[in-house]
Amino acid sequence: MTEITTKDRLLDTAERLFAERGVKETSVRDITKAARTHLASVNYHFRSKNGLIRAVIARRIKPLNKRRFELLDSYIAEAGNKPVTVERILHALIAPSIELYLENPHFLSFAGRMISTPDKQLHRIFASQMDEVFSRIKDQLMLAIPDIPEKELMWRIHFTTGAIIHTWTNHADLEIRSGGICKIKDKEEVINELIAFCGAGLRA
Questions:
Q1: Whole-prediction pTM value?
Q2: Number of domains in the chain
Q3: Could you report the per-residue pLDDT of 110-159, keeping only the tens digit for each?
Q4: 101 with 170: CB under 8 angstroms?
Q5: Within a domain: 52
Q6: CATH code at 5?
Q7: 150-177 and 187-203 helices cross at what angle (nearest 10)?
């Protein structure tokens, strides 16, 4: 069995506590105490609390975006000289994020907090990781639905990302209100329903 390093233990613990309590509400001392290490280890591995936050984000978002780009590139290649369909573009955006949620629910709870925080600096630390994804998705959607003006498309992509984030962070409400017939763990159903909803919104 591979021994978990101090760095990984700090990342795992920070991710969990940030998700449970919030970033501002969690001190470096809270993290090091729960990770059974000392304060200097955060400075050694990450230099600062913000460095630790960035590392927690990058550990999940870099592989997530890599998978999104792989899917998008494969759909572009399949389409040849034709535009990629809206549904394929949305699948590249949505499917990897739902898979990440099911594998690492703490992270996406943390991500929801980062996206909704009123602290502009914290928000931007997270949002900056999504800029390239947003740009590539927008470029492909402009080809797929060229009749929609760019300004309107920007609004619709914004609302689409909101629907995805809401699904991550509020799925428990859906399970209660649906009497348990709708479950986030039904991966294919969640992906298909989100694609259908967001696709209709983008084309409206």
A1: 0.89
A2: 2
A3: 888 888 888 888 888 888 988 999 999 999 999 999 999 999 999 999 99
A4: no
A5: no
A6: 1.10.10.60
A7: 140
